[in-house]
Amino acid sequence: MNEQYKDDMKQLHAPNDLKEDTIHKKQIAGIAITVIVIAVAMAIAISKVHPTKAHVYNMIVNEQINGDLVGTDKPDMSKEEYSNYLGMNVMELIKGETPSNYTIQVTNSKKGKIAEKDKGIFYYNVNGDMLRIELSKTEELAPKGLLQGTASKLDGKDVYLGKYEGRQQICATGKINQVSYLIVGEMMEAEQFEKIVTRFLEGK
């Protein structure tokens, strides 16, 4: 017996079997409290190492690379007309950033109204990170099969994140007010990419 055990036994005025049971329960309670304290400390440590929830990047396979990666100085529709058509300012898709280049492609446009197809492609350099944003009101821009994957939440909205197989590109896709969007980042870290996507979604 240790000294603590002897002291506890002296202080109890009860049958020996009751004394033994009481001391045993105290020891179990002490162990339980110690385990809880350790578990809480571990949870706090983990939350500091991983402050945000990891999002799911679905694998994109056999997807053709968009060949039209060069903007044009003579778009089919002006940026003002296209902004009105989509209901968003296409020259400030990311708050505080202006596209370095862009192209707006339309089919059978009449008096600023698009009859068949549209697509706007806007190129950005955000603190050295290269990315492009594609928009369309008439075309689904999500890579094949991505919308059948797992959705993540950014800015409270459902976003499908993807990683292109065999390429150093990641993407985000979804819809805002019936406008399909596709954001593709070149050689970017996921955390930084998600911050930019969140900036795109804010206020829309």
What can you see in these coordinates?
The protein has helices at 3-11, 16-49, 79-86, 190-201; strands at 57-60, 101-110, 113-126, 129-136, 152-154, 157-164, 169-176, 179-186. It has 204 residues and is of the alpha+beta class. Strands 1, 2, 3, 4, 5, 6, 7 and 8 form an 8-stranded mixed β-sheet that branches. The termini are far apart.
User: What percent of residues adopt helix (DSSP H or I)?
Assistant: 25-40%
Shape: globular
Strand proportion, as a percent range, falls in 25-35%
Order of SSEs: HHEHEEEEEEEH
Question: How many β-strand runs?
Answer: 8
Q: How is the biggest beta sheet arranged?
A: 8 strands, mixed
Q: Could you tell me the mean pLDDT?
A: 76
Termini, distance in Å? 71 Å
Radius of gyration: 29 Å
Q: How many H/I helical runs?
A: 4
Low-confidence stretches: 32-52, 67-73
Question: Which structural category fits the helices and strands?
Answer: alpha+beta
